[in-house]
Each structure stands twice: as C-alpha cells, then as structure tokens.
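Box S2. Input/output pair 1.
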Amino acid sequence: MPITDHKGIPGMESGNLCLAIPFCCMYVISILGNMLSMLLSDSQEIRFDACLTQIFFIHCFSILDSGVLWAMAFDCFMATYNRLQYESILTNPS
C-alpha cells in the first residue's frame, strides 16, 4: 500500500504557514467584523455600505476557497493518475 506525503506547494514547504495565517485572518475579519460590532452595541441593523462590503468579501473569499479546493483536487488526481511523472509535471525544468 503506497504512502503519500502531502507537502503543500512544491519548493515552498517552509512558506505554507505564512500563506495559511493571512487567509485565516481574512476569513475571520470578513465574517466576524460586523457581527461583533452588532453584538457589542446591541444594534439590530447595519449600514448599507457595510452590508455590501461584507457581501463582497464573503463572495470573494468563497470563490477563492473554491479555487484552492479545485487546485487541491486536481493535484490529488495528478498524483494518483500519473504517479511516476508527477514530480516532473509540477516542477519547472531548470
């Protein structure tokens, strides 16, 4: 039974944490920002521009997340389908 090792982006193993932290912060800020201000001020409504901003960021990050998941699925497919050629397909010949 073969064992796979998931390292993230080839050649950037040390930078994976540096990429994960900003994405996590963007998600937290876009989703929880207005909600926390509403809960702390006991307000039942938000301004229209704040609502549009929140909708924009939620949709942008969900599209970005879908793209990342698609890339991960494609990477998994390539690793499974072309086992012996996987490294030469994803790395630049230099």
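Box S3. Input/output pair 2.
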Amino acid sequence: MAVAAATALTTSGLLSDASRARAEWKPTVDVMVTTHQISAGNDLADVTALERWPAALAPRGALAEIPARARARIDLAQGTPLTAELVTTDSGTRGRVVLALPSDVVSPPLEAGDRVDLWDTSGVPARLVASDALVARHRGGAVAVAVTMAEQRATAGAVGAGSLVVSLIESD
C-alpha cells in the first residue's frame, strides 16, 4: 500500500512538472526560416518558409515575413531563422564593382558580409587603395569584394602586381 501511494505521488509530481514545462513552450510565434543553404546576396523569396516556433526559442527580432526584394546579407545555412540583421533589401554593391581576388592574397579569415580595407604594399609606406570594401562572396579560397568605381583601378593594379593585402574591419 505504501509503495502504491509513493508511486501515485511521484507520478502526480512528474505529470505536474510536464504540464508546467509544456505551458512554458505554449506561446508560439511565426518565424521565417531558410529552406536551403543560401549564399550572400541571393534572393530569399523562394527559399524560405514560415514555421511556428516556441516563443522562448525564437531569436529576438525574428521575421514573420520577408520584405520585398530581400536578399541574404551573409551566407546562411538551411533552417536558419531570419532576423533583420541577416536580411537586406540593398545588394550592398550598388554603385560598386565586384572584383575577384586571387586565393594567394594575404588576408585574415573572411566571411561574406565582412568589411575590409585593401592595401597596396608595393611601396613604403603601404597605400590604402579601397576603404570599407564589402566581401560580397567567399567560397573556399575565392573571395570577391565590392569596391567603388574610383577604387577599382588601384585595387586591380595591386592585384595584378601581387602586392594586395586585405585588412578586416572589426564590427562593433
């Protein structure tokens, strides 16, 4: 009899704990997520889906809909919940030229969306040839950066001379 009473109390306590845990997950919110891996700059219109997430797990600022002309600001993995920080309606390259950098260019580890300064080290002191350039793509060792039209010639010259060095601008 004592064993049955103890079992009943334990079971009742476990059910109560489970009910409380379920209640914590109860409020849900709509969250847009990626359905495929997406490269920075790619359109998000056909590669997202709306999911219901427990409010406690949804990232702060999660988007419930995709803005018109939305693009990935950085490379995104499949299943990534989208926030305003990950999405842009501007390509980031407007008014800029995208240049491919050879894999042997000296640079820190880079990701799409990073901002960099580009230096020509053929002379002393080194000369800044592009400021606040956007890393538009990064795949394996291949990097493409968006520079202004005015910076294009000097950047291409430094690439051709083999004297280009990339410095990463740390974000705040």
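Caption for Box S3: The chain is about 20% helix and 35% strand. The CA atoms of residues 106 and 165 lie 5 Å apart.
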